[in-house]
Amino acid sequence: MYPLPRDNKWLLSRLDYLWSEYFSDVPQNNKVFISFGRFAKYRLGSIRLNKRTKSSIITITRMFKDQRIPSQVVDHTIAHELVHYAHGFSSQHPKLHKYPHAGGVVKREMSERGMGYLYDFYKKWIIEYRQLLRKQHGW
Ligand SMILES: [Zn+2]
């Protein structure tokens, strides 16, 4: 079986899957967009709120278009941004913390929602990825 092409439609299907599987209690009370952004090696994903249209925009690094990046890593990145959304960062939901990453809240939320496996997968991958980057830069 050939992997699906990684375009914005694919990203949306991953977002839909993760939302219905793990965030079904979080109402979507504004428009949410997701798309690939520029090729970023360090900032893998982000979420921002368009103040004028009140829509949330999730951007995923173009690097993840590469099929060699495990899909679990992409899913983890999307889920991470969805946790921010659920916590009221760049969304219309009430803000649950002062800072989006306060005291490991994202990791905790992910394991409480049954996505510990995604976090663990990502954790292993990021260690190897950082080693690769270090080698590339000759550090
Ligand atoms: Zn974050």
Number of helices: 4
Bound ligand species: zinc ion
Q: Element order, helices and strands?
A: HEEEHHH
Q: What's the architecture in CATH terms?
A: 2-Layer Sandwich
State Rg: 15 Å
Helix-strand category = alpha+beta
CATH superfamily name?
Metalloproteases ("zincins"), catalytic domain
Helicity range:
40-55%
CATH topology: Zincin-like
**Judging from the principal axes of the Cα atoms, what is the shape?**
globular
> How far apart, in Å, are the first and last alpha carbons?
39 Å
Mean pLDDT: 96
Could you describe the largest sheet, including whether it forms a barrel?
A: 3 strands, mixed
Total number of beta strands: 3
Strand order of the largest sheet: 1-3-2
Query: Stretches where pLDDT falls below 50 for ≥5 residues?
Result: none
Give the percentage of residues in beta strands: 5-15%
Walkthrough of the structure:
The protein is an alpha+beta fold and 139 residues long. It has one domain (8-137): Metalloproteases ("zincins"), catalytic domain (Zincin-like, 2-Layer Sandwich). It contains 4 helices and 3 strands; from the N terminus they run H-E-E-E-H-H-H. Helix 1 (8-22) packs across helix 2, helix 2 packs across helix 3 (105-112) and helix 3 (105-112) crosses helix 4. It is globular. It binds zinc ion (ZN). Zinc ion binds at residues 80, 84, 100-101, 106.
